[in-house]
Design brief:
The protein is built from 17 helices and eleven strands. It has 406 residues and is an alpha/beta fold. It has a seven-stranded parallel sheet, sandwiched between helices. Strands 9-8-10-11 form a four-stranded mixed sheet, with helices on one face.
Length: 406
């Protein structure tokens, strides 16, 4: 049976891997719409190969060259574009793979339109997991996890009851700094942070993996995807990235999903569920691997994971605040305007500043997201001025006293 797809984030790592799965299964999938980011050249290649009906680009300036090449194609731009892509009537499944909070509203729109979701945008569940679940239940749609960890849990739950689960275990590679001492992280460079040992991903998620914020967000996502309390969700460092996650049942049985670290495996399962498609990937060679190791994460060193767990316990708008602050912090780090250890510092400060904030609707969360980003920039401007004051006595006179920097 042919399944029609819209792909939000087609030029990112998940989007290109999804299109590779489509490419290998032309009789199973048809791409109807693509929402891309800044990589215009790659989008042009994708349009030529997959011939979608609708396309969205991030910037309006990219519309003229696209319309010149594809005069018959309907093209959108800006923040409304992904929503149009997500709500196309003749689409069966929407692959939600935009980066960050930008994926929330298009994913919600797809759900409201009755589209099943292949979810790679974890921020959707981090920001508004309860509201997303309510919308999915009301619309009668399914949400299939694409993250390798959540896909592993989803697979390990098949044929079993969630009531019989003692705990789920999310595995993490530990990123490039697993063996580093905390003091060594003070001088981490951008190039070092972007060098993930196992996975080839986009820049933002690679930095989140280095800080373990990605794993913290996965804990929050798992809470809503599988309707489990935080105390039943555990994180273990597993450097080999072979066991993608595990489920322990009340009788002591532990079911694990193993595989090579390639996102096309969980993507394929989300697209074809409950079937499994053939692929041309290499088989897992356990003899070659030989050893699988596990470690408890160091929450003092990887403070972002601790912050995410705290946000989950606080509930309400706390995860939204943390996500927004982290997006700003990671962007500043990618621009080399703050250091690696200032990412958790900024995140914690914004969480503290927002501890009285409340949110119970999507509109509240949108407002809170904007407020948190403003607070994050306020913090950055303070520390930036402080940094300048070290070399400029006049700037030092302008530097405001900030108790969080004492």
């Amino acid at each position: 049976m042919l399944k029609t797809l819209s792909i939000l984030g087609s030029t990112g790592s998940i989007g290109t891997s999804t299109l590779d799965v489509v490419r290998q299964n032309p009789n199973r999938f048809r791409v109807q719409a693509l929402a891309a980011g800044k990589n215009l050249n790659l989008l042009i290649e994708q349009i030529r190969e997959f011939k979608p009906k609708l396309v969205s680009v991030q910037h309006e300036k990219d519309l003229p060259p696209l319309r010149e090449i594809f005069p018959e194609l309907k093209i959108f731009s800006g923040t409304t574009g992904p929503t149009e892509i997500a709500s196309l009537a003749e689409v069966d499944l929407v692959v939600s793979a935009l980066v960050g909070a930008a994926g929330l509203l298009p994913t919600l729109k797809a759900i409201e339109m009755g589209k099943d979701i292949a979810l790679a945008n974890k921020e959707t569940m981090v920001i508004a997991g309860e509201l997303v679940n309510e919308a999915a239940k009301k619309a009668g749609v399914k949400i299939y996890p694409v993250d390798s960890e959540h896909s592993a849990i989803f697979q390990a739950l098949q044929g079993n009851r969630i009531e019989e689960v003692r705990k789920i275990i999310l595995t993490a590679s530990g990123g490039p700094f697993r063996t580093h001492a905390l003091e060594d992280l003070q001088n981490v460079t951008l190039a070092q942070a972007l060098k993930h040992p196992n996975w080839n991903m986009g820049q933002k998620i690679t930095i989140d993996s280095a800080t373990l914020m990605n794993k913290g967000f996965e804990v929050i996502e798992a809470r809503w995807l599988f309707d489990l309390p935080e105390e039943k969700i555990e994180v273990l460092i597993h450097p080999q990235s072979i066991i993608h996650s595990m489920v322990e049942y009340q009788d002591g049985s532990v079911m694990a999903q193993l595989g090579i670290p390639d996102m096309r495996v969980p993507i394929s399962y989300a697209l074809s569920y409950p079937e499994r498609l053939k692929n041309n990937l290499v088989s897992l060679d356990l003899i070659k691997i030989q050893n699988l190791s596990f470690f408890e994460p160091n929450l003092n060193k990887f403070k972002c994971l601790a912050l995410a767990k705290r946000a989950l316990k606080l509930g309400g708008g706390a995860p939204c605040i943390l996500n927004a602050a982290n997006e700003v912090a990671v962007d500043l780090f990618l621009k080399e305007e703050i250091g690696f250890l200032q990412i958790p510092e900024l995140n914690e400060w914004v969480m503290k500043a927002g501890q009285e904030q409340r949110a119970s609707t999507i509109e509240d969360l949108i407002r809170l997201d904007a407020w948190s980003r403003e607070k994050a920039m306020e913090y950055f401007e303070t520390i930036d001025l402080f940094r300048k004051s070290l070399y400029d006595p006049i700037a030092a006179l302008r530097y405001p006293k900030n108790p969080h920097l004492q």
